[in-house]
Amino acid sequence: MRAVRFDSVAGKLELAEVPIPALERDEVLVKVAACGICGSDAARMDGFVQSRMPIYTPGYEAAGVVAAVGDDVRSWTPGDRVVVAAGRECRNCPECREGRGSDICSDLRLMAVHYDGAWAEYLVTSATALVSVPDAMPLEHAAVLSGAVSTPYGAIDTARLRPAEAVGVWGVGGLGTHLVQLARICGATPIIALDRRPEARERALDRGADVALDPANKRVASYIAEITRGRGLDVAFDFVGRESTFEQARAVLGERGRLVLVKRAPEGSLVEHFSEGEDGRTVIGHTGYRVRHLKALVELTERGRLDVSSSVSAILPLARVVEGLAKVREYEGNPLRVLLRP
Ligand SMILES: [Zn+2]
């Protein structure tokens, strides 16, 4: 099969011919229909995140069709349309040994970090890392769900966001823009988007933000106090991760407010939490998502609550991966997804 291979020692990316991987008893072979190019793929290749493999296949936002299943797999058959979670269970932690699967494994293995990713004609993952995609849903849309939409959805779950809560989103790029869209679905109000770039603020308003502010504006805190009628934010999501955004977001939290720091590049455990009580306010770290989040997003899309059709901006063949990466780097922060179609 053809696969994009990245040599992390030489820093070299190339399209190569490699064997179709063999299956273990609990694994599934998926023919990839589409896989996103994420900003953190680029970050990994630029050396900001180390892969555990010297040479590997990048890509972890994939959807496709089951091509073959291992001897023990009963849940899938060839021809099933699926979206692939970016993590699979470790088989070793206490949760896995009890057979409780990928939703609670405490040491998830990550695609393109611990095992080969999806910029290839085929990928292998565990049977529990797949979610069924309805016939009416394009696999390209399903691939977007596993990328820029699932991490914000996981962050909303981490925040325990409830209807009518006031939300602020710092950084409305790929992840933040989808968070705005999802917060709207969850009934948050008001939703305040903060971004330095006017075009990003414009887009956030299109996707459901009530107000969009430039965080450099000296009056941000008083605007937020005014918009929330003095109660401050119930939840602040920080996708920027600078000290300035952190301080600004923390300063406008209301009573029992939660500040969720969303880390872009998944490393180690897929969802990790830390919190510190401070006058009833909480700071929480969040990374990634779980299979149950992906299931929920497929459901929301199938029932017409969530529309990601405008989130696909380009679909390129594997051979044009370098061009695709350039687009992602150049459109840094743009919510529109660039997909590879092997
Ligand atoms: Zn485990």
TrEMBL record:
<keyword id="KW-0862">Zinc</keyword>
<dbReference type="InterPro" id="IPR020843">
    <property type="entry name" value="ER"/>
</dbReference>
<dbReference type="InterPro" id="IPR011032">
    <property type="entry name" value="GroES-like_sf"/>
</dbReference>
<dbReference type="GO" id="GO:0046872">
    <property type="term" value="F:metal ion binding"/>
</dbReference>
<keyword id="KW-0560">Oxidoreductase</keyword>
<keyword id="KW-0479">Metal-binding</keyword>
<protein>
    <submittedName>
        <fullName>Molecular chaperone GroES</fullName>
    </submittedName>
</protein>
<dbReference type="InterPro" id="IPR013149">
    <property type="entry name" value="ADH-like_C"/>
</dbReference>
<dbReference type="Pfam" id="PF08240">
    <property type="entry name" value="ADH_N"/>
</dbReference>
<feature type="domain" description="Enoyl reductase (ER)">
    <location>
        <begin position="8"/>
        <end position="340"/>
    </location>
</feature>
<dbReference type="InterPro" id="IPR050129">
    <property type="entry name" value="Zn_alcohol_dh"/>
</dbReference>
<dbReference type="InterPro" id="IPR036291">
    <property type="entry name" value="NAD(P)-bd_dom_sf"/>
</dbReference>
<dbReference type="InterPro" id="IPR013154">
    <property type="entry name" value="ADH-like_N"/>
</dbReference>
<dbReference type="GO" id="GO:0016491">
    <property type="term" value="F:oxidoreductase activity"/>
</dbReference>
<dbReference type="Pfam" id="PF00107">
    <property type="entry name" value="ADH_zinc_N"/>
</dbReference>
